[in-house]
Amino acid sequence: MQFKNLALVQVKKLAQNLAKEVKKTGMVIGLTGNLGSGKTTFVKAFATKLGFKKIHSPTFVISHQYRLGSKFLYHLDFYRLAHLKQLAPLGLEEIIGGKNIVLIEWVDKFPKIFKQCDLVIHFQVKPYDQRDITIKFQN
Predict the structure, then answer these.
(1) How far apart are CA 93 and CA 90, in angstroms?
(2) Where exactly are the structural domains of the chain?
(3) Mean pLDDT (the chain, rounded)
């Protein structure tokens, strides 16, 4: 599924619509794209739709966890990581294996984790502050 020439407000709306769809089921969502392409903006809008008021970027701490009823919303950012062994302390098997909602920025850095995503969203920046977004179901 492709969305072309979206302004950031439309990216946020897309995130909110997706959040509404996966709220009850849980899902592992991988986010790819260059710096500044809208990944964190997407996550913040997604989380806002789920009722969270403040979401922090996990670029420096790698992971944030937010309680969502009987499950969790996880926001992971692999930007600063370079080796698969750096993921070990995160407990990814438990995070990904449950009914949680997991959003992973820069998931394409680790093909093993990339393959475990239910959905991958690719962001591409275009001129005039617009973006193309491609959503692909994997499983």
Answers:
(1) 9
(2) 2-137
(3) 90
At 134, give phi and psi (nearest 5°).
Answer: -115, 125
Residue 97 phi/psi, 5-degree rounding, is: -75, -15
Instruction: Report yes or no: 14 and 90 within 8 Å, Cβ to Cβ.
Output: no
* CB-CB contact of 110 with 83 (8 Å): no
- Assign a CATH topology to domain 2-137: Rossmann fold (3.40.50)
Extract the tokens encoding 52.
């969270």
Residues 6+ apart with CB under 8 A from 62: 76, 77, 78, 80, 81, 90
**How many degrees, rounded to 5, is the angle at CA 116 between CA 126 and CA 7?**
20
124's tokens: 């591409």
Single pTM value for the model: 0.91
The predicted-structure confidence for 6-38, as pLDDT tens digits, reads as follows 999 999 999 999 999 998 888 999 999 998 899
What number of residues does the chain have? 139
